[in-house]
Amino acid sequence: MVSFFRRFADDVRRRRYLDAYAAGFVAFAMAAVTIFVDTLGDELRWAAALAGIGITVLRLTSPENRAAATRGASVGDRSVFDDNPLAERLKTAREVCVFAPSAVNVLSEQYSETLRRDVLGRRQGRVRVIVLDPAERAAVSLAVRQLDESLDYQRSDLRADLGSVVEELRRMSEWDVEGNFEFGFLPYNPGFSLLALNPNSSDGVVLVELHGFHNESTAKRMHVEFTRGSDPYWYEYWCHQFERMWSRSRVPRTEAEDVEVTEEPRP
Predict the structure, then answer these.
(1) Which pLDDT score, from 0 to 100, does residue 70 have?
(2) Cα 229 vs. chain centroid, distance in angstroms?
(3) CB neighbours (10 Å) of residue 181?
(4) For residue range 19-36, what is the model confidence (pLDDT) as tens digits?
(5) Domain 72-258 belongs to what architecture?
(6) How far is CA 224 from the centre of its chain?
(7) Cβ distance 154 to 219 under 8 Å?
(8) How far apart are CA 67 and CA 230, in angstroms?
(9) 50-64, 112-126, 171-185: least confidently modelled range
């Protein structure tokens, strides 16, 4: 029972399944009243029953539940973006959360412009980005071994990419936009990259890239896509992973200070 109330409180906070809860509470209330008072009309009883059945059918046939019934989490390499391009997803996103050692692919000129115009152009828009802490030299060196030197066909340089991305993040933080943009630094690479779109909404999507030990190229790394309908447990797990990283990421200070400063967790 305690777990139910916790789940109920979380769903209400996230504004999920409110119609189903409302119908359920009405049905239970009518059942309780019927035990003690047998004065409820048949019309009212049938109305409550049919409302509950109707909401159940709508829930079962909703797009997210159909997706869950026909497939689980989507697995593939970076080509999974071909059928549903990231640029198109970003256009309708209200909240974007990113973690990657350099995030150079997500913060390309095309995507940055989409973030500025379509996400941060909204008053409720929010973008949070976490990258590897450039002041953590040992962690950066290890990430170079993990991500650059373990590729058969290396096409980028993590150190150079991280430096250019940090400069880009600072410029983005100075944009005059309606939405809210923040970024932070993580002290080490946890072995994956993560992109969450609308993580607190029913239409949210989480994309996870597993770095692995060795790959032919960056594009060949394993990618897994989760939705709340396809796999609620792992969807919430990866959303919580980002929030944990965000709480431990260092708040950026001035460019000169970043050369010497170490980790300063968020308050």
Answers:
(1) 42
(2) 14
(3) 20
(4) 666 766 766 666 666 655
(5) 2-Layer Sandwich (3.30)
(6) 12
(7) no
(8) 6
(9) 50-64
Residue partners of 228: CB distance under 8 A and separation at least 6? 64, 202, 204, 235, 236
Please report which residue ranges of 148-229 form alpha helices under DSSP H: 158-173
Q: Write down the pTM of the prediction.
A: 0.69
Pairing, β 126-132 against β 180-186: parallel
- Is 67:229 a contact under the CB 8 Å cutoff? yes
Amino acid identity, residue 130?
Answer: I
Q: pLDDT class for 160, splitting at 50, 70, 90?
A: very high
Residue 118 corresponds to which tokens in the numbers above?
Answer: 């379509």
Distance CA 30, CA 47 (A): 11
Judge contact between 156 and 165, C-beta under 8 A.
no
> Is the distance from CB of 228 to CB of 243 less than 8 angstroms?
no
Distance CA 193, CA 215 (A): 15
Rounded to whole angstroms, the Cα distance separating 186 from 142 reads 14
CATH 3.30.870.10 residue window(s) in the chain:
72-258
pLDDT of residue 74: 81
| 3 state DSSP class of 79 | helix
Other beta carbons within 10 angstroms of residue 56's beta carbon come to 13
Residue 252 carries which DSSP code?
A: P
